[in-house]
Amino acid sequence: MDIFGTLSAAIGLVEKVKAIFDQVDQNKHDCAVLSAEIVKSLLNVQHFWEQHSLNHPTELRDSLSEFETDLRSINASLASLLKPARECPLGSSIAKLNKIYNVEDIKNELALLDKKVQRCRQELQIWSTVRTESRVAAMQTDISAIREELRMLLPGSSLQRRETLERIEEELPKRISVINPSGALQLELSLIQSRNSLAIATSIKSDRFSIRSLSPSVIDKRYLMDKVKEISKTLPEACDDVLRQNTFTWFNQFRGLENVSSNMSRSEAIKETVRILKVLQSGKQVPYIDIAQDLLRLGGALRTLGMFDQASLMYDWGVQICFKLAALEGPKSLVDLVKFLHSFSLNLDSDKQRIDAEMMFEQAVKGRSQLAEMGEGGYLGIVASFLTSTIKRLAKKKRLDACSRVTKEAVEIYHNLFKLDQDRPLADLSQSAHKLAIDLDNAGLTEDAIKVGEAAVKMRRELVKRDRRTYLPDLSLSLYALAVYLDRIGKTEVGVKVGQEAVRIRRELVERDRKTYLLDLSLSLYALAVYLGRIGWTVEAVEMGEEALEIRRTLTEKDRKIHLPDLSLSLHHLAFELSKIGRAEEAVKVGKEAITLRRELVEANRKTYLPDLGVSLYTLAIHLDSIGRTEGAVKMGKEALEIRRELVETDRNTYLPDMSLSLHNLAVHLDKIGRTEGAVKVGGEAIMTRRELVDKDRRTYLPDLSLSLYTMTIYLDRIGRTERAVKVGEKAITIRRELVEKDRKTYLPDLSLSLYNLAIHLDKIGKTEGAVMIGGEAIMTRRELVQSDRRTYLPDLSLSLHNMAAHLNKIGRTKAALKLGEEATMLRRELVKQDRKLYLPHLSLSLQNCAVYLNRIRRSAEAVKVAEESVTMRWELVKKDRKTYIPHLSLSLHQLGHYLQKLRRSEEAMTVEEEAVTIRLILIEKNRKTDLPNLSHSLHHLALDLDKIGRTEEAVKVGEEAITLRRELVEKNRKTYLSDLSDTLYNLAIHLNKIGRTEEAVEMGEEAITLRRELVEKDRKSYLSDLSDSLYNLGNYLGKIGKTEEAVKVGEEAITLGRELVQKDRKSYLSNLSASLHNLATYLHTIGRTDEAVKVGEKAITLRRELVEKDRKFYLSDLSDSLYNLGNYLGKIGRTEEAVKTGEEAITLRRELVEKDRKSYLSSLSASLHNLATYLHRIGRTEEAVNVGEEAITLHRELVEKDRKSYLSDLSASLHGLGHYLGKIGRAEEAVKVGEEAITLRRELVEKDPVIQPESEIHSNSDVTPQTYAR
Q1: Is 155 helix (H, G, I), strand (E, B) or coil?
Q2: Is 1232 left (phi over 0), alpha (psi -120 to 50) or beta?
Q3: Phi then psi for 349, rounded to 5 degrees?
Q4: How is residue 243 annotated by DSSP?
Q5: What tens digit of pLDDT does each residue of 288-325 get?
Q6: In 719-835, where does DSSP find H-type helix?
Q7: For the chain, what is the largest distance between any 2 Cα atoms, rounded to a whole number of angstroms?
Q8: In this structure, what are the phi and psi dihedrals at residue 129, rounded to the nearest 5 degrees?
Q9: What's the CA gap between 1037 and 1028, in Å, rounded?
Q10: pTM exceeding 0.90
Q11: Is 52 left (phi over 0), alpha (psi -120 to 50) or beta?
Q12: Secondary structure of 918-945 in the HEC alphabet?
């Protein structure tokens, strides 16, 4: 079997092992049995490797890539094999299995063999360049021998492997040297390296060696370099000058091996080198430092060939020799050594050489420390100068860590030199420190720049003490630079102090020489203004900026070309600071001047100054917007955007962030002036550019992208694309969640804002449940923010609570809404104490909403108190800003009137509602389109209030006016206002019926029904109950005007709809259905269909009994009315016994009602008694009829005393009936007396109304259930 067959078989076995482990993992078989199978399979893998040799050099060379692929597959299979074993639930059995045979060892051995194969591949490639076929065959034999020996390592134990390796080290070089004598040492070295998994490689290219192409295997480093190390230990004791020449001879041979004649074999050259080293070891002569440096250079040569491990050994030993030699030869030699080490370390650029570079660097530090310890100024100066140049080189090569360490060392040297107190060197040293600080800052090492800059300032302060006139300019320069560095790392407050000192010094210098130092002063003033602005000292920043501006105006007058850029910069910054302190008008003026100058600069040099012009236009747009001139802001923003588009075309990477910023702000300004469609387009482009920036630098630009997405949600919502706004808002939230994970403190406010807005948008599209969930998260984040900064985030928390309450109320969770609303109110009371002017409107709104919630849960008395407080606050707001808050006041008054009406405080309700109407009449004159709906609403409710207090005639007039307005609204927007018009028509019909204009009531009712049928077609669920109410009332009106047949038809339709509603919501609509049945029975009785009336009446009674069981207080009166009427119907069709029974039950209920409310129910009880007397007489129970009749008369007399006009007829009828009953039982005298009184009363009635008919029965005023109003 060939190599590849062997590999395939081995892989198959490994897959089998994997499958076995899978069975273990799935717990399908007994683990002990499977353990045996696993061991057997793994042993089979080993046997394949043992039984098949891999000495197929030709096949190996031709198919090496396939070999490597297969070998890696084995490793991957073994790795996956281990996983199920470790995760198997039968842990004890698997542990036992691992004890029997360690699978991990197989993986490690195969990985080691994989490395060997790769190294052989390298050897094969190298040997492919050798021209002699015999050498190729020899090398292939060598490879086969190595692989055979390595193969034997696999199955054995650790001890066996170690013994095999030692045998290879002893025997293999002898075998190979027969074919390749010069390679004996080379192979020995290779095998030693193989113990540490180093490469087996060679670079034999010809019979002659080249120092430039030496590989680590050319020299027996284990043997040769050990000798170098031994010698290096004894060098300090060597003193004999005689061997100096021998040293040169050895190194000449060492370095010039390429010049060795072809007659001299490689092994001979190496032997000669070893001989010379032995001489050096035994001698007493000190070799030159060139020896050590040549060792380092040899390491460099090895490094260029990629032999980094071998180069490191050369570096290490060379440096040790250098230090020992330098210790003998003195400081000068040490200086040279340090310079060499520094230079060498800086040249080691690649990552693989970083360890060597660090080693060299540390050794250089060691040398510098030795020089510094000598304490001599000369050497300290040399070290300082040398450190400065080193730092520059390190910074240039971006080796920032090393640069920081050297800087720390340099600062210490500066302080040591400072203590030596030497004038001239101190001046030079301060200059070096000053320049070094600049270089460090330019390299991005600003922290280090500050340390060096502080050292420079310290030295120059000392110099100023000695010679103020000479060194004061230098000190001011160092202070100015130090302030820049401090500001750059965020220590701006410290920078301000340093900058202030620089300004003071430069003022002094200007007094001495205005012409020379005025420019420097302007620079310091400008920088100080910038720093002051950054720490919030804006007023002081403006003062400094204005002074700098005046100086630069002076300088520009003298030399416009040079100083015009600085003048434009000062104007630009001053405008920015003026806007921050509320002087926006001045900011605009100054900003325009800056733009004028920058336009001039752009004409002179477009490439240089076009970016500055773009910045000025961009900021001027912001200033214009802040003073309400947003149209102008849009114009400036567009010009800035065009400039930045041009810049992006020339340098996209640099200017794309600026362009995205311009796009974002332009969108904001377009939205402000109502051009939201344009804002969406521009904002969309801003998002696209910021996505591109995020792809390049996610960390920097992700916050900007989230901001653009957030603002886009606002624009989309404004133009009615709220569904799209929700999707974009969710993306913004995803990004802000990511930002919060990285920096919670900074980005949590943004996340809370996005959550808050998303909740609003979800509610708008009808997903209020989702809005509640998102709004709840917003509240949680804002509670957290309030804990960290109550003053800043309390307004946001109160807003989230307020809105969440509204969402909860919308989905029927009004009690929870009230709880959050009350918390919002409490927080806003706290805010009002801090700033009454700012937060009073918010508090009044929270109170208004809380009143709504209280009213909804039937706590109307509390709702009135809260609403009254809201009204009081809004009156206060109206006094300060009538235009803004008068609409809010009208709404509060309107709602208060509604709550008062619920408490039956109708007079107060009407007064409040009239006030709301008065306000809305004023508002409609100014803005009819906006305020017409509100006025119509107020008129609608005022009509209700007037009716409640008995002023129904006025209610009709107000209702008619409301209808006129609502007809106008329907013409403009039928969909929105049709429901309101139907409500007002419905109510007006009720009022017209009340004042006897029932014919007109029918017309209004029919129109209301027509509109409500239209509404039901579009939304049956929402409007079906309104239609059923309208049909119910229309039936009443038709019955009243004698159109009873029509009333029956309408009533039957009302019942049909009522049944449908009851099926969906029995609790809410059962009462209405019972009322419709009650009234239909009345209509049927009226048209002579009394048998049907009885059946319908009985159904009404059944429903009302059910209602009484649930709420006796509320529905007892209705049940008594239905029983009373059913008694009448039964009496009419001759079922008088049943009529008596029903009548007696009605009387029992009405007695209960009279006990609770005599005024309201006394007339109903008297009517029931009167009719029961009639039924009793009919069935021959006249004695009882007399008793009941007398009680009825007693009650009627009481009623007549209170309202003669209304009840005189009922009293006369009862007297007439009683006289008849008395006569029937032989009590004639009493009958006469009663009859005479009846006649007297009826004479009185005839005088008032000649068309009067005598009655034997009295029908209850409650025959028709009281009508409901649409509010």
Answers
A1: coil
A2: alpha
A3: -95, -40
A4: G
A5: 345 555 555 555 555 555 555 555 655 665 666 555 55
A6: 722-742, 744-764, 768-788, 790-810, 814-834
A7: 176
A8: -90, -10
A9: 15
A10: no
A11: beta
A12: HHHHHHHHHCHHHHHHHHHHHHHHHHHH
